[in-house]
Amino acid sequence: MAKLFRAAIMGPPGSGKGTISKRIAQSFGLQYLSSGHFLRESVATNTEAGVPVMTYIERSMLVPDHVMTRLMLPRLEQLRGFPRTLAQAQALNSLYQLDLVISLNIPYETLKERLSDRWIHPASGRVYNMGFNPPRVQGKDDVTGEPLIQHDDDKPEALMARLRHYKDVAKPVIDLYKSQGILHSFSGTETDRIWPYINSLLSTKMHIQPSNVFQTQTP
């Protein structure tokens, strides 16, 4: 049986985790799903785990470790966006050993510009950027035609607090993976410039050449 390749991508809001994940899936035939997708799904289907999630989402608060872990651990083999904190990383380590962790380091000014232009379709989680990935019709989702929204915590006045909090919770997680020798950090202002280095790293780690033949899309 083929060995599963397990990786995590870390980065602050707006760092390009979703874009990089899609490119990895398309180039290497891997599957990815985001923790945000699971959070929205658990709320929409009113699952037992999703009931407490709504309280935190409505207040634009991070979902606590014990709630996230309970929701995510059963789906570990399909994850992106987890772990976010040291407690979540330790829970993950107790069950699975990651092969690789990618950390995206993007300057604050770049993040601020990206997030101020970011609009979201709430039901699906599809993300648009007015600068480089705008919807076909302004303010409308390409698939459903439903209105797009901008999260309050994506607005510039809330961004600094989010980034500060991310640094606080991410540092021990980064230190953990660095100590395990599986952390690889990439810095820059453009995803297109960072991607070739990530592509090369994965090609080496997986001992294959990238291919567009097999694609696994997010459900």
UniProtKB/TrEMBL annotation:
<feature type="binding site">
    <location>
        <begin position="61"/>
        <end position="63"/>
    </location>
    <ligand>
        <name>AMP</name>
    </ligand>
</feature>
<dbReference type="InterPro" id="IPR027417">
    <property type="entry name" value="P-loop_NTPase"/>
</dbReference>
<dbReference type="GO" id="GO:0046899">
    <property type="term" value="F:nucleoside triphosphate adenylate kinase activity"/>
</dbReference>
<keyword id="KW-0496">Mitochondrion</keyword>
<dbReference type="InterPro" id="IPR028586">
    <property type="entry name" value="AK3/Ak4_mitochondrial"/>
</dbReference>
<dbReference type="GO" id="GO:0046041">
    <property type="term" value="P:ITP metabolic process"/>
</dbReference>
<dbReference type="GO" id="GO:0005759">
    <property type="term" value="C:mitochondrial matrix"/>
</dbReference>
<feature type="binding site">
    <location>
        <position position="191"/>
    </location>
    <ligand>
        <name>GTP</name>
    </ligand>
</feature>
<feature type="region of interest" description="LID">
    <location>
        <begin position="117"/>
        <end position="154"/>
    </location>
</feature>
<dbReference type="InterPro" id="IPR000850">
    <property type="entry name" value="Adenylat/UMP-CMP_kin"/>
</dbReference>
<keyword id="KW-0547">Nucleotide-binding</keyword>
<feature type="binding site">
    <location>
        <position position="35"/>
    </location>
    <ligand>
        <name>AMP</name>
    </ligand>
</feature>
<keyword id="KW-0342">GTP-binding</keyword>
<dbReference type="GO" id="GO:0046039">
    <property type="term" value="P:GTP metabolic process"/>
</dbReference>
<protein>
    <recommendedName>
        <fullName>GTP:AMP phosphotransferase AK3, mitochondrial</fullName>
        <ecNumber>2.7.4.10</ecNumber>
    </recommendedName>
</protein>
<feature type="domain" description="Adenylate kinase active site lid">
    <location>
        <begin position="118"/>
        <end position="153"/>
    </location>
</feature>
<dbReference type="InterPro" id="IPR007862">
    <property type="entry name" value="Adenylate_kinase_lid-dom"/>
</dbReference>
<dbReference type="GO" id="GO:0005524">
    <property type="term" value="F:ATP binding"/>
</dbReference>
<keyword id="KW-0418">Kinase</keyword>
<dbReference type="GO" id="GO:0004017">
    <property type="term" value="F:AMP kinase activity"/>
</dbReference>
<feature type="binding site">
    <location>
        <position position="40"/>
    </location>
    <ligand>
        <name>AMP</name>
    </ligand>
</feature>
<comment type="subunit">
    <text>Monomer.</text>
</comment>
<feature type="binding site">
    <location>
        <begin position="14"/>
        <end position="19"/>
    </location>
    <ligand>
        <name>GTP</name>
    </ligand>
</feature>
<feature type="region of interest" description="NMPbind">
    <location>
        <begin position="34"/>
        <end position="63"/>
    </location>
</feature>
<keyword id="KW-0808">Transferase</keyword>
<comment type="similarity">
    <text>Belongs to the adenylate kinase family. AK3 subfamily.</text>
</comment>
<dbReference type="Pfam" id="PF05191">
    <property type="entry name" value="ADK_lid"/>
</dbReference>
<dbReference type="Pfam" id="PF00406">
    <property type="entry name" value="ADK"/>
</dbReference>
<feature type="binding site">
    <location>
        <begin position="127"/>
        <end position="128"/>
    </location>
    <ligand>
        <name>GTP</name>
    </ligand>
</feature>
<feature type="binding site">
    <location>
        <position position="88"/>
    </location>
    <ligand>
        <name>AMP</name>
    </ligand>
</feature>
<dbReference type="InterPro" id="IPR006259">
    <property type="entry name" value="Adenyl_kin_sub"/>
</dbReference>
<feature type="binding site">
    <location>
        <position position="162"/>
    </location>
    <ligand>
        <name>AMP</name>
    </ligand>
</feature>
<feature type="binding site">
    <location>
        <begin position="81"/>
        <end position="84"/>
    </location>
    <ligand>
        <name>AMP</name>
    </ligand>
</feature>
<dbReference type="InterPro" id="IPR036193">
    <property type="entry name" value="ADK_active_lid_dom_sf"/>
</dbReference>
<dbReference type="GO" id="GO:0005525">
    <property type="term" value="F:GTP binding"/>
</dbReference>
<feature type="binding site">
    <location>
        <position position="118"/>
    </location>
    <ligand>
        <name>GTP</name>
    </ligand>
</feature>
<dbReference type="GO" id="GO:0006172">
    <property type="term" value="P:ADP biosynthetic process"/>
</dbReference>
<comment type="function">
    <text>Involved in maintaining the homeostasis of cellular nucleotides by catalyzing the interconversion of nucleoside phosphates. Has GTP:AMP phosphotransferase and ITP:AMP phosphotransferase activities.</text>
</comment>
<dbReference type="GO" id="GO:0046033">
    <property type="term" value="P:AMP metabolic process"/>
</dbReference>
